[in-house]
Amino acid sequence: MQEPSGRPVTIAQVARDAGVSIPTVSRVLNGSAPVAEETRRRVDASIERLGYHPNPMARGLSRGLSDVVLVILPNITQPSVNLRLAGLISVLRETPYELTLVDLEHPDSERKRHLADIVARHHAAATVIISLPPSTADTLQLLRQAAPVVLVDVRSDAFPGDGIDDIAGGMIATRHLLGLGHRRIGFVGDAEDRFIGNPASANRRHGYEQVLFDAGIDIRPDDIALAPHGMDTAKAAALDLLDRSDRPTAVFAASDVQAFGVMDAARSLGLDVPGDVSVVGFDDIVTARLVGLTTVRQHLEVSGVRAGLRLLELLGQPLPFEMPEFPELELVTRSTTASPGDAHPIRSMAAALTGAAASEKEVSTAFDPAFGRDERIPRRK
Amino acid sequence: MQEPSGRPVTIAQVARDAGVSIPTVSRVLNGSAPVAEETRRRVDASIERLGYHPNPMARGLSRGLSDVVLVILPNITQPSVNLRLAGLISVLRETPYELTLVDLEHPDSERKRHLADIVARHHAAATVIISLPPSTADTLQLLRQAAPVVLVDVRSDAFPGDGIDDIAGGMIATRHLLGLGHRRIGFVGDAEDRFIGNPASANRRHGYEQVLFDAGIDIRPDDIALAPHGMDTAKAAALDLLDRSDRPTAVFAASDVQAFGVMDAARSLGLDVPGDVSVVGFDDIVTARLVGLTTVRQHLEVSGVRAGLRLLELLGQPLPFEMPEFPELELVTRSTTASPGDAHPIRSMAAALTGAAASEKEVSTAFDPAFGRDERIPRRK
DNA sequence: GTTGTCGGTGAAAGCGGTTTCAGTCCGCTG
DNA sequence: CAGCGGACTGAAACCGCTTTCACCGACAAC
Q1: Chain-centre distance of CA A29, in angstroms?
Q2: CA-based radius of gyration for chain A
Q3: Tens of pLDDT, residues A180-226
Q4: DSSP letter string, B106-129
Q5: A61 touches chain B (CB under 8 A)
Q6: Can you identify the CATH homologous superfamily of domain A166-299+327-371?
Q7: What does CATH list as the number for B68-162?
Q8: Of A88, A158, A231, B173, whose CA is between 20 and 30 Å from A317?
C-alpha cells in the first residue's frame, strides 16, 4: 500500500523488493510454474506492500493476446441495445476479460466506419457486434482475422449469433389482434435502407402480412406507414394512418418505441387506446411494462448473456453458468389491446398508465431489467 | 487488404514490404519526424496493401501510456447512468481514446470492489467514475496515482466533477407543489447506508424539508417513506404513505424511477394522478416524458459531456467543442401535478399517458435522448 | 574550405511483462 | 556411488512499437 506516487510499480521493483528474479514474480502471479512456499510468501508480501498491479498492456503484448472484448453497437441509449449489453456485461463480469465499448451512434451515416476496420484496429481477443449487420465486405474481412466474432440480434451464416425469428414475432402480434376481432390492422415500422439496416422491422412486417393473407384479409397499402426508427417519427407516420375516418382499428408497431409513437399519435387525435385503437409493440423494453403496452417479448438481456457465453466457448474459457433457456418470443398482453368496440376508456387509460399488473401475464426471470430491481440492497439488516 | 490470415500484420512486415526500416514506418504512422515524400508513399502503400493496424498494446507499452479511459459505473441499465455515459461517449468519440467499461451493478454488495483497486488494475490513461462516491480510502489511493480522475454526479473536493445541487432541486420540486396549493406533501426516497451511497436522495429531502419548514408547515414523519432505490420498492413504500384516509395530497419522489413506483401505488389504490395525488419526480429521464411526469430536470447527458471535456483538459488534449452551458436544474411541468381537488380525471389520465405536449414547457437541447431522436437517418434522400 | 544545421534514415535500447532454456540442489533408484 | 528426475530459480530472448542516438549527405554560413 505504499506506492511511492507517480509511476506505477513494475514487476522489477517487486522482484528487487522480494529479493528474487523477475520470472519468479511472474510465476507467483500466474501460477505458471512451481514456486517455493517461502519464496511465494515473500513475493506476495512485496506485491501487497508496494501495491503492485501488473500492466495489462505489457502482459497482453507478451502473451500475444489481449484480454479485451470489443463490443460494437449502434446506440447505447436505445433500450433494447442497452439491455442486450447489460446481459453481456453480466457474463463478462465473471471472467478475466475487459469490455471496450464502441458506440457508433449513427452507424450508417456516410458508412465510413467499417465494422471490420474497427475490429482490426483494436486487436481485441474477441468481438461482439450488437444489432448491426456486417456488410459482405466486413464479413469477409472479419472472417480473415483470428479473433472470434459473435453477433447479437443479427443472424448470419458466417458468425455465431442469435437473432430471433422476427417473422414469427410479427405473426404472433398480428394473430393476437386478429383473435380480438380486428380486421383492419395497420403497421408502423422502419423505413430504411435495407442494405445497411437491420432487417428486423421488415421481417416483422412480413409476418404481419403473412397472417393477414392467410386470414383472407386484403392489406391496404395505406394501412402501412414507414418512417425512420424513433418515437417521434413513428408518431408522425401513425398520424397519417389514424387521421382518417376509415382508419384501422388496431396497429402493430415494429418496436415498442414506435408503439409509443403510435399511442402518442392516437392521443393527439383524441383516440382512446385501446377503445378506439389497439396497439401492439415489439421487444418488451422496460418502459412497455410501465405504460402497459401489449407487446411481443423477446428476452433482450438473455440475448446478451448468450452471446457472452458463446464467446467464452470460442475463447476456450470455462462457462460461469449454463446457457439459459428461454422461450424465444411470447406475447405479453397488457392494456393497449382490446376487441374493437370493447372500450372501457377510463379504466383502460388508468390501467395503461401503470401497466395493470392484474391483466398481465408476467414471466419472472433471472434477468429482470433495472426498473424492477433494487439497485441498492440495504446492508446488515 | 491482403492480410494473409492468422496473425495480425506487424510493423516489421510493413517495413520489409516497403523496403525501409521499422522506425521509418513508425514515423509515417505518427508523423513524429520528417519522412521523404517518396518514402512515405511507399510505406502508405504497404500499409494499405497489407491491411496493417498498429497494435495498441505495443504502442501503449512503448509510449508508457495507454489510450483507454476507464469508466466505472453502478449499473448501466439505470436510465440516468445510461444517459450520462452516452454524453461521455459522444465526447470520447471525437478523440483517440478508447472506452473501457466496468459495471459494478451491485457496488456496495460486500463492498469488496474497491474503486481504487479497479483503477489501479487497469493502468488507464484516465478514469471517469459515474454516480459512485469514492470512499476516503479510495480517494487517498486514487490521488496517489498519476492518471486523472473525473467524477460524474458526485461532488468531491479531491476530484473534478459536477454534482448538481440536490438541495436546490428538492426545493424546486417542493415549491412547485406548494405553489399549487398542497399543504400535505409526502416524500419517497432512498433508504440507504449513507457511508456508501450517493447522498442525492438525502439532499433532495433536505431541500424538501427546508421549503416546508420555511412555509411553516410541520413535517409529519409518516409522510416520509424510504426504501431501497427501485420502482417496486418505491411502490411498496408509497403504499404505506397513500393507503390512509389522511394521506398527503402530493408526493415528491427523489427520482423519476421512484415516482413511477408512487404512480403505480396510487393506481393500485384507485387514486387518480393528479386528481387525488400529485406526483413530482427528479431527473427527467426519457420515460418521464413518455408518461407525462412532472419532474425536476437535470441534464444527465450533459453531465457526461462535461466530464469528457474536463477529462480531455486534464489530459492536455484539444477540446472537440465548447463546454456546454445549461441551466443546472429546471422544473418540467407535465401532467402528474395539479392543485388539490383540481382533477379532470379522464383528461389528465389521457394526457399522462403520452406526455401532453401542449401543457409542457419543453426545452430543446443538442442532447436529446434516444427516444426523441431518429436512430436511422435515411440516406440519399 | 571548414563548420554548422537540417532533412532523412537505421541500429539499438527500452517499455513491462511471459516464456524458453539452462542450470542448481535434492532425494531416489539401481 | 553414479545416475536420474523433479522442484525451484535466473539469464536471456521476445512480444510490437516508440524513441533516442548516430550517421550521412546537402546546403548555408563564416
Answers
A1: 36
A2: 26
A3: 999 999 999 998 754 456 788 999 999 999 999 999 999 999 999 99
A4: STTSTT---HHHHHHHHT-SEEEE
A5: yes
A6: Response regulator (3.40.50.2300)
A7: 3.40.50.2300
A8: A158
CATH 3.40.50.2300-classified regions of chain B: 68-162, 166-293+334-363
Q: Which of residues 221-250 of B touch strand C (CB under 7 A)?
A: none
Which residues surround strand D, with CB < 7 Å?
A 20-24, 27, 33-39, 58, 61-62, 64; B 7, 10-12, 22-23, 25-27, 29-30, 32-33, 52, 54-55, 58-59, 61-63
Q: Domain B166-293+334-363: which CATH class? A: alpha beta
Give the minimum alpha-carbon distance from A115 to chain B in angstroms, rounded to a whole number.
Answer: 14
Distance CA(A163)–CA(A154), nearest Å, equals 5
Cα–Cα distance list, B125 to A302, A326, B119, B323 (Å): 33, 41, 10, 21
Q: Where in chain A is the domain with CATH 3.40.50.2300?
A: 68-162, 166-299+327-371
d(CA A13, CA A4): 12
CA A298-A300-A306 angle, to 5 degrees, is 110
Q: How far apart are the first and last CA of chain B?
A: 32
Which residue, among B126, B143, B125, has the nearest Cα to B134 in the 3D structure? B143
Q: What digits encode the pLDDT tens for the residues B70-123?
A: 999 989 998 899 999 999 999 999 899 999 999 998 655 544 568 999 999 999
Which nucleotide is nearest to A22 if distance is taken from CA to C1'? D10
pLDDT of residue B230 exceeding 90: no
Q: Do B105 and A93 touch (CB under 8 A)?
A: yes
Report the gap between the CA of A216 and the closest CA in chain B (Å).
33
Q: Which residue has the cell 383473435?
A: A179
